[in-house]
Please model this.
Amino acid sequence: MTDKNSNDFIENGEDNENVGEHDLMGLFEAVFFLSNDPVPISFFVKHFMVDPTQAKIIIDSLVDEYEERDGGIRLSELSTGYQFVTNARYAEQLRHAMGLKKRESLSRGMLETLSIVAYKQPLVIAEIDELRGASSRVMIANLMRRNLVKPVGRMDLPGRPLAYGTTDEFLRYFGLNKLSDLPKLSEIKEFSLDSEGYE
Model:
C-alpha cells in the first residue's frame, strides 16, 4: 500500500537531482517492501535515474542499517538482486506461530547431488551419475520439486540433454548471497557426509 505522495513521486519520475539522499533511500526501501522477488540494481538505474554506483551506495546503506538494527527483517543480497528476508533467529517461532511447515531436511543422496550441481554447473544427469557412481534422476526430480535445482538450457551433446544448475532458493536455503560465497573445494576436502549422519 502506498500513500498519495509516494505515488506522485513515482509517477512523475522526479529527477534524481531534485531528490535528496534520504528520499532516495526511502524510495528504494519502499520498492524492496513491495517486491515479492529480488530487485536488481538495474531496476533503480532504469526507473529512478540514478547511476549504478549511487544505487549500490544507497542499497549498501540500507543493508547496513538493517544489519545494525538486528530486528525481525534484513535486506539481503541474492544472485539476482536484493530482497527483504526475515531474521533467521526467529525462524522457529515464526513457523510455530504462523503454522508453517518445518523445512524438510535433505537426504544424503540429495545433498550429494546438490553439491555436485552447485560446484560443477551447468551439467547433465549423465555427468552427475558418473561423479556419484549411481543414478541421479530421482534426486534431481526431488531437488527440482523443492526448487533447489532447475534446468538451465541444453548442452551441445548428442540428444541435446538438459543441463541443470542451482536456483535462488538454493542460495536462500543455505544462507548465501551468491554462488561465489560457496566454500572453496580445497577448504572442505576433508569434509565427509558420513560424519553428518544423513540418511
Summary: Confidence is low (pLDDT under 50) at residues 1-18, 191-199. The chain has two domains: 4-90, 108-196. The longest strand covers residues 73-78. Residues 52-69 form the longest helix (18 residues).
